[in-house]
Design brief:
By secondary structure, the chain is α+β, with helices and mostly antiparallel strands. The protein has a domain of 134 residues. The chain is built from one helix and eleven strands, in the order αβββββββββββ. The longest helix is centred in the first third of the chain and has 43 residues. The protein starts with a helix and ends in an 11-residue tail after the last strand.
C-alpha cells in the first residue's frame, strides 16, 4: 500500500511539473511571437490600408452678425458686423481605375515565419469641378498605415517607427508630365486649377511594403465616386 502511495505521489508531482513547464513555454512563445511581430513591422512595415484620395476647395463666405457696441457717449447701440468663415468643399472623384500587384514573401524571425509583401500600385483618378466658378483644388493622397481598428481589423500599436514604407512615389497628369507635390505627415498633397464643369485626371504610382495584409478603401462616407 505504501508503495502505491509513493508511486501516486511521484506521478502527481510529475504531472504538476509538466503543467508548470508547459505554461512557461507557452508564455515564452507568446512573448517571442509578439516581440518578433513588432520587429518585423519595424523592419518591413505593418498591415496597410490604402485609402482613396480626396479633393476640395476653399469657399469663403461672409455673414452679418448682430452685436452691441457702446459709443463714446456711453449709449449702447445695435449694429451688424460681417463675420468671415472658410469652408472646405469636396470635389468628387468621378472615375477611378486602380491596378495593384502584390508579391508575397514569407520571412523568418526567430522561430516564427511572417507573411510580408511588396505592393506596386498605379491608380488613375479623375476629379471634376461641378460648380459654376473657377476653383483652386487641393488633392490629398493618404500615405498612412492603419494603427487601430479600421476596415474590420485591428493590430497592436508598436509605437513610433511602425509606419508604411513607400518608394518611388510619383504623380503625373493626363499628358504624362510629373506633378510637383508635398508630403506632410501621412499624406501627399498637390493643387490644380479647374474651370467650371472641367475635369482632370492624375496618375499616382508607388511601391510599398508591409506585413500580413493590404487593403484598399474606396471613397469615404459622404464623398461620391461614380465609377471605380
Amino acid at each position: 500500500m505504501k508503495s502505491l502511495v509513493g508511486i501516486g505521489s511521484v506521478w502527481v508531482g510529475c504531472c504538476i511539473a509538466w503543467v508548470v513547464l508547459g505554461s512557461t513555454l507557452l508564455v515564452r512563445s507568446d512573448d517571442s511571437s509578439l516581440t518578433g511581430e513588432g520587429d518585423v513591422h519595424q523592419l518591413w512595415g505593418p498591415p496597410t490600408q490604402q485609402r482613396q484620395p480626396t479633393a476640395s476647395f476653399q469657399r469663403t463666405t461672409y455673414t452679418d452678425e448682430p452685436s452691441i457696441v457702446v459709443g463714446a457717449d456711453g449709449i449702447s447701440r445695435s449694429t451688424v458686423q460681417p463675420q468671415r468663415s472658410v469652408e472646405q468643399v469636396p470635389i468628387p472623384v468621378v472615375r477611378s481605375q486602380v491596378e495593384v500587384d502584390l508579391a508575397l514573401e514569407h520571412r523568418r524571425r526567430g522561430l516564427q515565419w511572417y507573411p510580408t509583401y511588396t505592393v506596386d500600385l498605379e491608380g488613375q483618378y479623375t476629379f471634376q469641378n461641378t460648380t459654376d466658378a473657377v476653383r483652386e483644388v487641393a488633392i490629398v493622397f493618404p500615405l498612412s498605415a492603419s494603427t487601430s481598428s479600421q476596415g474590420g481589423w485591428s493590430r497592436p500599436n508598436y509605437g513610433e517607427g511602425t509606419t508604411a514604407a513607400f518608394d518611388n512615389f510619383v504623380v503625373r497628369d493626363s499628358d504624362g508630365e510629373s506633378i510637383a507635390f508635398d508630403i506632410t505627415g501621412d499624406h501627399a498633397r498637390w493643387t490644380t486649377e479647374l474651370q467650371p464643369g472641367a475635369s482632370r485626371t492624375f496618375t499616382v504610382q508607388y511601391r510599398g511594403r508591409g506585413t500580413e495584409r493590404w487593403q484598399y478603401q474606396m471613397g469615404a462616407a459622404g464623398l461620391r465616386s461614380s465609377d471605380a
